Records
---
Amino acid sequence: MADLGDLADPLVVVALRWADARARVDPLTGEVGTDPRGAGPGEADRCALEHGLRIAGATGARCAAVTLAPPPAEEMLRDALACGADEVLRVDVAPEDPRLPDSGAATARALARSIRAELGDPGLLLTGDHSADRGTGATPAFLAAELGCAQALGLVELSLVDGRLAGLRRLDRGRRERLAIPVPAVCSVEPAGVRLRRAGLPGTLRAREAVIPAIPAIPVASGQTGAEPPSVRAARPYRPRAKELPAPQGDDPRLRLLRLTGAHEEREPPRVVVTEDPAEAADELLAFLRDRGYLP
Amino acid sequence: MRDRAGPAAEAVTVRRPEAADFDAVVVGAGPAGSAAALELARAGHSVALVERGPFPGSKNVYGGVVYGRILDELIPDWYERMPVQRWITRRQTMLLSGDRSLTVDFRSQNWGRAPYNGATTYRAEFDSWLAGHARAAGAVLVPSTVATALLRTADGQVVGVRTDRPDGDLTARVVIACDGVNSFLGKQAGLHPDEQAAHTTLGVKETLALPRETIEERFGVTGTDGVDIEILGGTSGVPGGGFLYTNRDTVSVGLVLGLPGLAKAGLRPEEILAELKQHPSVRPLVRGAEVVEYSAHLIPEGGYRSMPRLGGNGLLLAGDSAAMCLAAGIWLEGVNFALGSGMYAGRAAANGLRSGGPAVLGEYRRLLEKSFVLADHKKLRDAPGLVLSERVQHRYPGLVCDLAEGMFTVDNPRPKPGLRRLLRRAARHNGVRMRELARDALTGLRSFG
């Protein structure tokens, strides 16, 4: 398995998603109102950038931050430069391609082509696990497919062990799996474990003056991204189906109401665990979770 | 260094830098800061504009009108490019007493066309727009950065600011602090008088969403025309006042409450605001609206008598940090004074830098005194005390409403009472002596006349 440092020109790319986490959605029309001033990377993307900077610093690789977004996203890339990214690239959303940037497949294809053309083949490409605007989290997998490299998605830890990439991923029922990640690879990280460093003032000032390179998204021919995006034929408010519940039994309306609400039924009351010994408290919590089937 | 440092209590003593990073550092990208940075950048000086929020306007609270005449000097065609919600063509002053109200309503369509008089705007849009002009002129905007301390030499000369970023010292030949009502830099420099709380009010505001057509129907306006309503009374006995302004598809309704009175009353500002919204004169205007924002901010409303010293030793104060806010009853203005003071601070600093010395305080003060900024404050120096006095706050609204009710109540077959008799009766009913009324009228005449 190759190390990142073994590559001829090691490159760590962090793909950042520029999104407005406070976008307003009209409940009647479904129209989305966004404010570019409040948009930026999500927490997972910020963690990805920190991982990228750390790994690039430890291996001597170049670290590049890339986004597929309109011009206001330059502020996000300036922040990445201020934090220590060696270079940045903005891939402009092509107005003639409405699938960008809301289609994971199309986004991945446009990003992969632009990265290869402008920066070279990355040894490691990092992203957040989901975009902040309720994305599906599919883009990293599409990126791995486009770049033809390994994928390790949804990591809670990413580090270098003896020069090799090692990841930790959470599984169901509280289990974890440790991954030895070969390069080249695409890794997506959860917003956990690390926090993006605070950019120093000299770097911030340099980044304010920097020219942010931008290239148009390489057009994707029709049919190359698989299925065409669904077209909206009618928009209406979200009204979930009513859930059918069996009628409560009982002659007395009060009794029926009590049965419906579950009041006066026998149940274990909640309690506060207070012990002097943290280990004892942890044991008690774990026993509780095991008892209810949350842990094996 | 901590990840994010809070403001330091004292200035940091440093050696005089051999070469400053910038000619000037402006702290705060509000209207005052951006105006100062714009003026300096246009004069060819290097300027850093340090803003604590992620973008200019992201931290500001305001629910008022921007009177843009001062912008004529700064951005000549401002009214064609400024992000405006509505141009104010209708101005009302409403006196509330119990469930009664008396409203003076003035409308002028002259205010709805160039060169306009005032406009409502969202500060996130307005401040970003103004800071954009400063950036275009060459100022370097440094967002998400808090200026935590002044950098001073051993002889007291201000040579820059320390920020909360790693390696965060920023040196400059002159520092202009536009860091708001709680100006930590001004306080570190010892420029602010004690008892700030006594001269400070708390502004609270709700932004309420309503369909555009509903706003136009309720407030009697069309197109881009808007309404500004200033309210006296309706503050549950706490000294202060209220306001209601129309935006395109929201209205801003809020209160300005004196801090000592609010603390003494033991009331929560949102409770007082909820009560104001239930007043029979206000409720129909905001009925059915959805609250989209609640915000609060301190306002330096003490006027001329409570102003700090405006700078010294390479430091200038402008905007709220210099208490440039006029709260004189019929005139409630802040943004235009911030713009004016910032512009003159920038101009004085630019002139000082050009002449090779940082001694700019004298010129700054001279420019302010020659302009409306200090002239208005000086002329209206007694107005804040009068407006927040117990009589104006508690007794006169009742007196005026009693008078109006007496005049307009038709109680035939009794003959109509004379105005003098009504006035005496209303004064007696509200505990106002005619001597006090005459004295306040004289004070008002001296201030406003």
---
Amino acid sequence: MAENTVRTVAELVTPCDAGAHVVACAFLGSETIFANGEGEIVFASGKRVAAHPNAAILEAASDGERIVTCGDDGRVVATDEAGTSETLAEIKNKWIDHVALGPDGAMAWSAGKTAFVRTKKGEKTLEVPSTVGGLAFAPKGFRLAVSHYNGVSLWFPNSDAKPDPLLWKGSHLCARFSPDGKFLITTMQEPALHGWRIDDKKDMRMSGYPARIRSFNFSHDGKWLATSGAEAVVMWPFQSKDGPMGKEPKMLAPAREGSRVSCVASHPSRDALAVGYTDGMVMMVRVNDAAEIIVRGPEGGEVTALGWHENGLQLAYGTDEGKAGVLNL
Amino acid sequence: MSDKIPVTVLTGYLGAGKTTLLNRILSEPHGKKYAVIVNEFGEIGIDNDLIVGADEEVFEMNNGCVCCTVRGDLIRIIDGLLKRKGKFDGILVETTGLADPAPVAQTFFVDETVSGKTALDAVVTVVDAKWLKDRLRDAPEAKNQIAFADVIVLNKTDLVTPDELKDVELRIRAINPFAKIHKTSRSAVALDDVLSQGAFDLDRILAIEPHFLEGGHHHHDEDVQSFSFSTDKPLDPKTFFAWIDNVSQIQGPNILRAKGILSFKDDDERYVMQGVHMMFEGDHQRAWHADEKRESRLVFIGRDLNEKALREGFEGCVAK
């Protein structure tokens, strides 16, 4: 499709200044917020909350009521719609690299080789063989995936049993379950994804990327896994019980020359996704016919965060230069 | 390359004076702010919110090649530091005394984010003038650290006689004739000699020690060799990249360090490259100056290198 025929909705975007490298976008009530690399929670309405003073936010998770951030100041902080921050955990002289939110108010975080889980009943820890690369709660059952070098530990914090190991050589970073809980996917240090079918631990390797995959997520119905790291969005089919094994991925929304897909966010209810690129462009693309709509032109900065409101009518983006915006459909 | 954050890697065997040097870099009023990645928090006597503890986690990449190892913790830390871009001018990485510098250096080649946003400025090795010769006998790491260095801080020179010092210097030169050596005691080296080096700057080495790069002259260590090749005839880029790729595949495990400044046919820009084991990277650096001799120079430091094959290969890259 020639570029000049692509529709644009850029006029529906309200740009805002997120101050610094945008780590995550989220929607709290009627507020759109951005967590940045200088430890701030920046509200699209203008309010700024120093959640991690003199520190960087490394990761964030949100349940729609609060955003929980972890930082290189060794703290986990929750900030709500009113801008009130509360320290939930603190470890001196350590970075808290990862944070995840689970069912019934459960929360997990990690520092170095230790993963922590806190529930209403209390707190538990798990030591893994190397630094935790990522954390993910399973959609069903109280189970936490803790990724690390050479695999993932599937931990059942409510049981005293040893974590169930999923093994694959190499360094595993971000982890994510499919919506039905049947698959677990990790991004790896090399430009590849690894996946396991949980039932039989069958391996699946998804490779061929030119760059490390920093962003990936499942479509709302779990049929596709959208991934960054290439010149186009690489969509792995997960319709069958074998996942993407033996199947070709679908390529969508190719980047402009010299640019790559840096961020993806599947729409919460439709077969569409938002795509961010290393040249700052943001697009929406429909999965079935690859129709594209421009949200933001290639205005510079690398898109580092994208987030849909659960109503599917608002999309927030942010770049590594602190530029951000909200699309209202 | 100019907007990349410079990274200085500080190596040195146990007790050589690394921490003293690091403390000096952090406390002297040079007007720059460094993010510092250390092994032991306690040894750094300076309060700095950008000091990060590392775990020295060496990871193999999944291609199964043992020499393609990286420091996973460094990638993670640099990813994190990059979120605070603009808050510091450079990154210092301290390694433990027993560490092989290769995985640290390779980290700056292999990971796309790290190599895209940061550049290895120099590997600085602190060496103990009094005990180096013993270490070279009993600790292979000590020799690797010297072979890898762009800058060597020859420390504790007050503890040896001038003759002993000369002898130590010759030993260092036998392993690595290309590094700059600064003699000092109590790590009191001028910080300008350690930071902002630009590891590519072979010109300076030429100016200081011209004979080291003349006609492939090489010195002898028992197992570490160094070679340099040069030509004033422009190279054919296609032939050269195919050749260097092949060299990295075949001789890579034995190459500790490689560096080059290259002049390609019909190309008015200097091309600079460096490599560690099987990983090589390069880029156009700047335009050749009008009064500058357009020459290609390539140096290798390694073990069991096939000099004849390297020389003939290099000479075969001259544009027809």
